[in-house]
Design goal:
By secondary structure, the chain is an alpha/beta fold. It has six helices and seven strands; from the N terminus they run E-H-E-H-E-H-E-H-E-H-E-H-E. Strands 3-2-1-4-5-6-7 form a seven-stranded parallel beta sheet, sandwiched between helices. Strand 5 (137-144), helix 5 (155-175) and strand 6 (179-186) form a beta-alpha-beta unit. It is globular, with a radius of gyration of 17 Å. The protein starts with 9 loop residues before the first strand and ends in a 7-residue tail after the last strand.
Length: 244
């Protein structure tokens, strides 16, 4: 793959101001891309990453939107595309709450599905419509190893990600051949923001370590800039955790 495979292409990354979204946005920048930084309520963090992106000589723009509001989501791609012609969409924004089946209320359920599933659906649908004039494009849905190995923990999150995995495959067929749709299923990358770190996590991973940020970057760029015949795939970057 060339040194800057995304040179001068514009990628929209949702949830780009914080945590994994930030990592993915910077991965695009390292590959030569310009980035539209979406955030819901992290203005200062968005400004911080914008400053960092500028230090690499790339352009970035900040767009705020509440992804739980279907009306905002429906117009978000249009707003982004008016700034710069979009080549890629990375659906990274998500909520991850440690709720069991018994603890999950209807409000919890609907909140997880609206952000983790409905928003990627609406964004991808709008992206596909605008790509009719833009040409080819790529969609990456950020998943979790739990998506293909659902368990009882993080119940609404896990169900929403499992549904997103199914939607990834369905969209890959529906949007071919102009747009590729793939999933990036992550494991232990960053400690959870709203939970104590479970030191036993590493014991459950065949690779016996956390994933390195560079490994996540490489996988994302492969899906954004690699062969266009790869679509409907879900690449696990989790040290083999989904296997055990």
């Amino acid at each position: 793959m060339e040194e800057l495979p995304l040179l001068n292409k514009t990628i929209l990354v949702t949830g780009a101001a914080r945590r994994v979204g930030r990592l993915l946005a910077l991965a695009c920048v390292h590959a030569g891309a310009d980035v539209i930084i979406h955030h819901g309520h992290s203005q200062q963090e968005a400004l911080d990453i914008q400053k960092e992106i500028a230090s690499f000589g790339r352009q970035s723009w900040i767009l705020e939107a509440d992804l739980s509001d279907p009306n905002e989501v429906a117009h978000f791609i249009l707003r982004a595309n008016e700034i710069s012609r979009l080549y890629g969409l990375v659906n990274s924004a998500a909520i991850f709450e440690p709720l069991s089946l018994e603890q999950t209320t209807l409000a919890d359920w609907e909140r997880h599905l609206s952000i983790n599933l409905t928003a990627p659906f609406l964004l991808s649908q709008a992206f596909a419509r605008q790509e009719r004039s833009n040409g080819e494009g790529r969609i990456i849905n950020v998943l979790d190893w739990r998506a293909l190995r659902p368990g009882a923990d993080h119940f609404p999150y896990t169900v929403s990600k499992a549904a997103l995995a199914a939607m990834t495959k369905s969209m890959a067929v529906a949007l071919a051949p102009r747009i590729t749709v793939n999933g990036l299923a992550l494991g232990a990358v960053l400690p959870p923001a709203n939970e104590a770190v479970n030191e036993k996590i590493i014991e459950q991973i065949p690779a016996q370590r956390w994933s390195d940020a560079k490994e996540i970057e490489d996988a994302l760029i492969f899906l954004l800039a690699g062969p266009a015949t790869i679509t409907g795939e879900i690449i696990h970057v989790d040290g083999g955790r989904h296997l055990v």
